[in-house]
Every structure is written in C-alpha cells, then in structure tokens.
Protein 1
Amino acid sequence: MHSVYCKNISKIYHNKKKALNNVSFSFKGKGILSIIGKNGAGKTTLIRILATELVPTSGTVIIDDINIVKNPEEIRKNIAIIPQEARAVQWLTPKQTLISYLMYRGFSYSESKKLAIESLKKLSLTKNLNTLNRLLSGGTKRKVLVSYVLFSGAKIIFLDEPTTGLDPISRSELWNLLKKLKDDYLIVLTTHYLEEAERLSDKIILIDDGKLVAYDSMDGLRKKIKYNYSILISNNIQKMPKFINVKYKIIKGLNSGYQILTNEKDSEKITNILIKNNIKFSINPVSLEDIFYYLVKKTISEDSDNSDNDEY
Amino acid sequence: MNTKKKLNQIFASILLNSIYAMKNYPIMFINTLLSPLSMLVIIVIVSRGALIGVGIEGAFIMTMLSGGLSLQGDLSHLKNDFKLQDIVVSSPTTSFIYMIGMGLSELIYIIPTLIVLLILAILFIHATIVQALIMLIALIIIFLFSISLGFFLSTFTSDVMQSWGMTNVISTLLSTIPPVYYLITYIPMPFQYIAYISPTTYAAEILQSITGYLQITPLNFYVDWLVLIILTVIMLVLSIRKSRWREN
C-alpha cells in the first residue's frame, strides 16, 4: 500500500513567483492520481516536489512514511520520473537507453540488458531495439521513456505531461498502457488533457494559480457542481430562447458557442425548447472539462452575471 | 547502498556518454584527438622543435583539462535537451556518483590522445619512472579540477549554447593563454602574476620543472603542489555541495 501525504506545500521561486500556495492532499493505494490545471497552474512544480527534484519553500511531503523533504535519498529507490519535455537520448538506441537508465537504478549490466529487452517487448518495441532514437517517431520515443520506468524497480511513478505532443493513436496506446499499469503502481501524472485525466484517474487534483481548487474522484468532482448535464450549442444563434421554470447555467464563449449546464429533469425541457427554436445542440453528462471550467471560472464571459441565475 | 550498485551507476554514465556514443558515431573518437595535437604541432613548428618537450607536457595538461571541461557541454546537453539530470536526481544515483561516472566517460574519449602523447613523451621527454609518476599525479589533479568545474557549471546552465560558449572561454583562459604550452619565463614580469590565477599554471610548472625545462626553487615546487591541491579540493567541495542538483 503506497501513500502520499502533502500538507501545506508552498513554493516560491527565486524570482518571487508563487508557484504553489498551501497545497494539501493525501492518497493511499495504487492507481492513477492526476494533477490537472491550465499552463502555469503549478502542476509541474508539484510533481517535481513529489519526485524529490525540487525543495518546497514550506510544507510537509510524506511518501510511504518517509519525509521526502528531509530525507529524499530514502525514497528514491521506490520512485521514478519521466519529466515534461524529456526525450530519449538521440545518439542511443532504445535498448542502449534502457540499459544505461536501468543501471542508474543500480542494476548490473546483465540485469539491465535482460530487463531492457523484456520491457521493450512488453511495449511492442522489439523491432526498434537497435534503431537510433532519433529515427523513431515521437510516440515511440515517448514509449521508450515510459518503458524505462516499468522495470526500474520503482513502484511510484511520476509522469509529467506524458502524452503532450503525441498524435491521437499514440496517445490512446499510452492510455491503454497506463490503464494496465495502474493495478501494480501508483502513477502520479500531470496533464492538461482533461479527457486523459477523466479516462484514467482514480483521483484528480485540480490546481489553479498554485492553489488546490478541488481534489476528489471523478464522481466526487461531479457532485461539486449542481448540474449533471451539459448542452452544447456550437453554432452562432441570434437570441437565446427563454427557459421558464428550469434550473440551468449558461456559459458563453466555450468553443465559440454556448454551454448550458442543467440537471437531468430540466434537460428534457430545455432540449425541447431548443428543438422548437430550430437550434442545433449536443447533450452529454458533465465532463471533467465542464467541471474544470465551472470550478476555475475562467471562461465565463460577458453573460456571466446573467448566467449565474438559476432561473429566468 | 553497496559498492557494486555504485559501480553500476558509474558505468551507466560511461556507457551512455562515451561507449555507446562512440559506437554509434565513431567520428566522436577522432574529434578529441585533434585539438591538443594541433596545438602541439603549432608550438613545435614555431619553436623549430626547441619546445617539443614543453609542448607535449602542455598537450597532456590541455587534454586532461578539455576532457573535464567537455563534461560541462555534455552534461548541459543531457540536462537541458533530454532531461537526464531530472531523471537521475529522482533515482538512487547521487550527484557525486553521477559526476564521477560522467567524468570517467570523458576520460574514455581522451584515451587515444593520451596514448599518442605517451608515445611522444617516451620519444622526446625521456622521463624517469619517478618523474612520470609525479607528472601523472599532477595530471590526475588537473582532471579532477576540470570535471568538478565542468559539473558545477553544467548544473547552472539552462541552454546548451550557453554551455558551449562557456566551455570555450574557460578552455582558452585555462589552457591556451596561461603558460601551458610555453614557459612562464616568456611572460614579462608584472604579467606573470596574472598567469598564477589559473590552476593550469601550477600544473605546468610542476611538469616543466620535474623534467628540467623550467628552473624553480624547491619552495616554489611545493607551493605549486599546495595551490593546485587546494584549488582542486575547493572546486570538488563546491561541485558536491553547491551544484544545483536537487533544486531549491
């Protein structure tokens, strides 16, 4: 059973930028813990502190009962990180990359060679064993790095934006891999792909401007907003029809259209009105993206005051 | 952690930074041979052969120095472009083991140059075993100084271009301008003191005096050793204690 306990972590950089502000949370067990937030929210700072790369300005971080702020060396055999923008060293082949990376973990050359081949096989990279990394596709290069953590001996893995820059197919392959791994590892990942966090995570940390906005499971986060359906109107409409005796919230500006958040009962009434007014729409249960925008409140534009009314 | 694991971690750096790199790109092998030998050729031609012994000793010092300083560029490249340092920081490898491994990986690159210089030294310097041992110790100290300096600086660089520029400047300041390829007596007196800012001047004086190219007092000889050792220890401590490994 793994555990991560963070209490009041703050980080102020030398340029006085406050990257994290009293962030507290705890997680126990295996699975995927996602940290989401917009660019510059503090995701990378948080994951780098957890991976013992960065010392927090204040606060306590305890992983598997080890205070990693005071004793980082003690946890390092159990953790591994693939940093944001990490690339497989281009003058090496995947096999050579893994052998040397695994030897940094303390494995002997023969153990590393065996593990490297096994790991690359598990990720279907056997045919690329001896191809120079620089000749591999972006997705394959990323897989090479992920394969390193698989057999590193670490049981807590930190992945900082692992799928950024990958094409949809490579991203989907990596998601499938992470889903398989979550039974054996505690994976902490940062992402700004909300769909990624929604599909993979057992728990989600939402941070904005260095502050923890929410921390819960996907179901728990859904309960944080009083609406459970999202109606998207993507085309421009002259005038929004009036919805009487229904509870809803309109967010203007999302994807250049309107979004109406409502509950299951009232969604039927609203969609009927939209159909009558010949307005095209799509309806879905609220997603992490909806929750994110709702909690962070960054997309509400000129209609925000009106949209806060539940009825009109 | 046991010694075997530490040796594995040291060997990881040697594999990654030199053996695999040379295996995949043999041109890397030739590159390190050219710079010190080209300087040696110039010195020999300009002095019409009179400074060949001093030139060989200078080439030894420059090879050891540039080997260590290359570490700065390589580490900076690995740190900033591949995020290797971030990966290693979160592993059981310590900064000291990483520095030693990477330092030794640079030594692998300079082995061919050292072999060529050794042959030239046997032919032209005719040092005794004791003299050769003293020279070897001074060269090892200079190498330790340069890898400590290279490692220390690499942890602060944020871009490989900045690092390459810094390496060239330091290499020129520490090996081309100071009296490494020539005798300190060639420098007019008030300016000789400036030469003593560089640790390579002390190493060169040790090598040149032990083989009879430079006449210095026994006191000077011991002071040279003392200063060289003190500067290297300071640099080593700085690189272990003050380099930016786990960031604050």
Protein 2
Amino acid sequence: MTRHVVVVGAGPAGLGAAAAALRAGARVTLVDSAEHPGGQYHRMLPDAYRAARPGRLHHGWDAFDRLRRRVTGHPRCAWWPETSVWMLERSAPGEPRPPRVHVLRGPADGSGRERRVLEPEALVLAPGAHDRALPFPGWDLPGVFTAGAAQALAKGERVVVGDRVVVGGAGPFLLPVAASLLEAGASVAEVLEAGTAAAVARGWGRRPWELASQAGKAGELAGYAALLARHRVPYRTGRAVIEARGDGRVEEAVTARLRADWSVVPGTERTVTADAVCVTHGFSPQLELPVAAGCALRAGATPEEPFVEVDADQLTTAPGVYAAGEVTGIAGAPAARAEGLLAGWLAGGGAPSAPELRRLRARRDQGRAFAARLAAAHPVGAAWPGWLRPGTVVCRCEETDYAALCRAADDAAGGAAARAVKLGTRAGLGPCQARICGPTVAELLRRRAAGAPGRPAEGLAPATPHHRPVAQPIRLGELAEPPRESE
Amino acid sequence: MSPRLVPASADAAGRRPDVPLRITVDGVPYNGAAGQTIAGVLLAAGRRSWRNGPSGAPRGVFCGIGACFDCLVTVNGDRDVRACRRRAADGDAVTTQSRAADSADPAGTDGGER
C-alpha cells in the first residue's frame, strides 16, 4: 500500500516536503489553515481580487507558483486548505507510529466545521513561526502591530496599516516589512534595528562563506536596502521604539539609542509622529504541535526560545515525526525549503542514499549555519526589561502588568514560581494561551529569580509555555459531533 | 491619517475592480471588498479597535496572523472568531466583544473567551 504522509503547514518548508514526498512515491495530505499555500513568505492574494500580476509582490514567485500548482494538482496529493490541526493524539507507548492528526475543515473559527482524523505513516510538521514582540509602554495601543501583521495585511490583502509608520525591532525581517509598507503607499518614518552597528556588522561580516549559499537571500536584502535608500528612509542601528503614546490609538513613538545590552542611553529619547508602529524582536516558533507529538526541544539563544530538535534527516525524537522550517531554527525561506525537501523525501520512504540528497543536505547545513549566524547577529539584549514601567502590560490578554508579575515572582517560592505566578496573575492564561507573552514572562521570572539573593535559579521549574494540548480552538458543538472516518 | 486599502486602479498586483460587499458591526454598516478579512474591512474603514480587554482597554489587530487573539469578534452569532483570519462575507453581522466587567457584552465577563 502507498505510504501516507501528512504535512502540516504549506509554507516554503511544508510545500517542499509535500513535493518531495510525492516524488518519493507517497500519498500526501497537505493541510494549512490558510486558503492558499505559501505560508507567510508567499502569502497569496485572495481569489476575489483577481490580480493579474500577483508576482509583483513576491520574491521567487514563478518557481513558487509552479511548485504549488504541481503539488496541489498532483493525483496523489490531497490539498486541504482552511484546515486547522486542533489535536495530535499520540499512539500507545511502544507503538512506533506518528500521532493521529485531528483536524477541522472550514472557515476560520467557524461553527460546524468538518471534523476529520488522519492516520499517517509519517508526519511532517512545518507550522512556521510568528513575530516575537517584546513589551514596552504603550505596545497595547491600537496602531501598534507586529511587523508580520503589517506585511500580512499589505501582501495578503493590500491593506496598509498607516500613513506614517515607524518600523523597529531586530533582525533582517525589518527590511522586507518596510519595503511592503512603502510598496503599498505608506510613508516609513524610520527603520530601527535595536542591535548596535558593531554587533550587526560582527554578526554579518564574519565567515562570509556562510552567506554564499544564501546568495538569493542576500540579493533580496540588498534590494530592500536600495528601496529604503530610494525613499530616503533612514535605517538606524542601536535604536529602538521604547514607548508608543496616544489617546486610544498611536499618535507618536518614543525612540531611544541603546547600548549593546539594549539598555537605554539616557537623554537620547526622541519623539516621532506616527499613526502606526510595527515591531518585531525575533520569531517564536509555533511549538504546540511538536510538543503535542512528543518531540524533544533544544535550547535556543535563551531557555525561553527553544526549537525542535532534529537529526541529520530532519527526524524529531518522536517516531515517524519530521520537522522542517522555522520550528527548527530561523533561517528564512530558502533554508526552510531545503529542510522541507529533505524531510518530505525521507518521510515519503525515499532512499536515504539518493544522490540528490547530498546537495540537499549541504544546503540544509548551510541554512543551519545561517540560522546560527542570524541568531548571533541579532540577539535580544538582556537589559530590555529596563524599558518597562510598573504599569506596562506584559500579558496583553489578561492585562497583567510588570509590577504585578514582579510582586508575584517575589512572593512565590523559587521552584514553583512559574506556576504560582501564572495562577496568581493570570499571565498567559488568556485567549492566546501564552503564545505572545509566554517567552517574555518566563524570561522575566528567570531574571528575577537569578537576581534574588538566596533563591537559586536552578530551583525554577523549566518554563513550558508551549504546552497546548488543544492546539487550536474547537467549539463544543464540533467536539460533540463524531469525526468522519479516519483515513 | 489612517489605514487604507490600496486602490485597485493603482495596485501593482493588477487587481481587477473591487467587488463590493457590506457587513455590519454592532448594526453599523461597513463597506469592503470581496477577499478582505473582517479585520481588513474594519482597518480600511479607518477603525483601529473593536474589542475591549478586562480593563476596557481597546484592542484591534496586533499579530495579524491568528496568534494573539486580540482581534476576536462575534460573526453571525459565532463568538471568538479571529477577525484577521476570517474572510468577510457580504451581509455578515459582526458584533464586538468585551471582557470589561461593566460591558454590555453578555458573555464577555465570564467564560466567553476562556
């Protein structure tokens, strides 16, 4: 019988995985919560826009367009758009099978979506990442967006988030976001990279051979830089948005010069008029599905920012479960695609000795080196909590402020701090289930515990903000309906 | 100064003229284009917030890709729909949600979004 591979996520990694698994002869079910493949990188316009030249908004559009048509039109591929994986059900201990995949098919968060259960021989998880946004006073004002939101709205539905926008945070993603805003007709007041010029130059300048493999990426970034220059948009390093102000919405941003540890240099504050502020300080991989599948995580730059551990074959520590793309490290679309192709081929039962794998593995290894390099060039500075005031909201859902978190952390016994703080302040218990504040709260508690005399940091329970057994909301009515027969 | 939809006539992506649609939010009509999300319709109409947090603080779009749940609305009676992920359909009756204790939202203060 033909091997059945389920691929979760149809971005660069997932689409690559589906293509390679099909090539290896497998039957593939490709699921994604969006209506079209592409993920965030190749987020497509809605069909209703009837766009004649969608490629104008994208890099590498033609290759992507060919690939997605080939995959979604393949006779052995079931393409399931608007499909949310809400639960992974692990097999019995000792049974070396990947988990059963429980999905809901239908409009986002709708009622009466169709419940289905998939029983794959191999599972490829490629759910991607979302922006990590650090809190600062006013970050909860309407008009403050993540950089990803600004890009998704501009690329995905041609809505531009403001007239005069400040883009700030850390990492090369600031550039395509600014470019998307300019393309859509906004004026970008400035682009602020929190990393100091020396840190960024050190990160990007050394070991240039590692960049060679990412030539496409480097060219893309150079294009964005040229666009910024053409529009006379200042790109400043060592500077950040430390406050957003306004009456019910953003009217101005306060920026300041930062030291290498992201502490504010006093007296360097400037006020910039803006109707939108877009921030990104890195990426949070979407870890709930890998965690539910039983995949071990490996430490990232900090204990709060782990990634999925994979071996040389993209296999996780869970039987039959592969991971590809941003959940294994942040390295951009080309690296994600290489990981996906490798994972899909092997998940699909393709020969591990196939000659083309050598090239693929090399590309994947270069991608990993690039990820390490990006992480080193754009680390989150340890002193960023200095931006916070006692009343600054840290958990957006529950509006838990910094003072309440500190109080709860100080009151709690070291080992039980994470749980006690959660229950005492509700931080992380709101609708987003700690997707946004989880790493931040864990980091603040760790720093608090480490700084408190007589309270050993090793007594702190490991931060596990990624445990979400119900991975996506399901309505009680939907839960009450039995799923359609497994396949 | 406000968010807006790139006009179809000026869109580098070569969009055909918009197919208009109309939704209501708490009974007030909003005009949009077929293909927009509910969040997109509201933003392009200049509305930045439509939900209230526990203190009553206004919320709208933050992450834009379904992770933050800031933008939740009720659509045709279904609570807790992420406005950034749901395509607007002509005639959708959207109502706003609030978690503030003094809100008129019947399910807002207890259990509605937990």
